[in-house]
UniProtKB/TrEMBL annotation:
Residues 105-182 form the Retrotransposon gag domain. This is Retrotransposon gag domain-containing protein. The lineage of its organism: Eukaryota, Fungi, Dikarya, Ascomycota, Pezizomycotina. InterPro entries: Retrotrans_gag_dom, RTL1-rel. Pfam families: Retrotrans_gag (PF03732). PANTHER family: LDOC1 RELATED, TRANSPOSON TY3-I GAG POLYPROTEIN.
Length: 214
C-alpha cells in the first residue's frame, strides 16, 4: 500500500506535489526493467497479486510518474472486463468534465473522491475488488491445502497463505505436516523431528527430491 500522504489540493494531470518536484530536479533516470502488472479482470482472488505487482513496479520506477493522477490512470490501463466496467463511468466523467486539468464541482462526488489522490483511488478499488475478510479466507485455505504435486509447490502455496495470518510456529508446523502426502509423512516419521517450520520444510523438500531422483 502506498504510504504517501494525500495532498492538500486536488490532484490534476499537470500539478506536481513536493515529492515529485524534488524528483524532477534530479538528473533523468532510465526506467529499470521491471514487469508491468498482469491485466486485471475483476477476480477478487487475483486482487492482492495485482496490487503487489503494481506496487513493485512503482517502487523501482516511481520517478516516471510526475503526478498522482498519472499513477491512477496507469493503474486503470490494466483494467479489463468487470474491473473496467466498474471504473468506466467515473473515468468518462473525469474525461468529459475536466477543466484546465482540475477536478471540479461539475463531476460526480464519487469521481472527485476516487481521483483526488492515489490513496483514495486505491481505497475505492480495494473496497470494490479486495477479498472479503482476507484473514479468514487465508486460514480456511491453509486448513484445506493438500500436497498434490511436489513439496516445493506445496510449500509455495502454504507460505502464500501463512504470510497473511498470525499463527505461531508450532501451529504452522502442524498444519504443514497435515497437508503433506502420506509417503512424505512416512519418511519424516523415521527421522528426527524437525524443531521448527523452516527445518520441517527443508527436510520435506529433501525427502521429496530423493523420490524424484530415484
Amino acid at each position: 500500500m502506498d504510504s504517501s500522504q494525500p495532498p492538500t489540493e486536488p490532484v490534476s494531470f499537470t500539478s506536481i506535489g513536493a515529492p515529485e518536484q524534488a524528483a524532477a530536479t534530479m538528473e533523468p533516470r532510465r526506467a529499470i526493467q521491471v514487469s508491468t502488472p498482469d491485466l486485471f479482470h475483476g477476480d477478487r482472488s487475483k486482487h492482492r497479486a495485482f496490487v503487489a505487482q503494481a506496487d513493485l513496479y512503482y517502487a523501482f520506477n516511481g520517478q516516471l510518474f510526475l503526478t498522482q493522477m498519472q499513477r491512477i490512470l496507469w493503474l486503470i490501463s490494466f483494467f479489463r472486463g468487470t474491473a473496467f466496467n466498474w471504473i468506466e463511468p467515473f473515468f468518462n466523467d473525469l474525461m468529459t468534465k475536466t477543466t484546465d486539468s482540475q477536478l471540479n464541482e461539475n463531476m460526480k462526488p464519487e469521481t472527485r473522491r476516487l481521483f483526488n489522490t492515489y490513496e483514495s483511488f486505491r481505497q475505492g478499488f480495494d473496497r470494490a475488488f479486495g477479498e472479503v475478510d482476507p484473514d479468514h479466507m487465508a486460514e480456511r485455505a491453509l486448513r484445506q491445502l493438500k500436497q498434490t504435486g511436489s513439496v516445493t509447490t506445496y510449500t509455495a502455496k502454504f507460505q502464500q497463505y501463512a504470510g497473511r495470518i498470525i499463527w505461531d510456529d508450532d501451529y504452522l508446523r502442524s498444519q504443514f505436516y497435515k497437508g503433506l502426502k502420506d509417503i512424505i509423512k512416512d519418511k519424516l516419521a523415521r527421522a528426527p523431528k524437525p524443531p521448527n517450520l523452516s527445518e520441517l520444510i527443508e527436510t520435506s523438500i529433501l525427502i521429496d527430491n530423493r523420490f524424484y531422483e530415484q
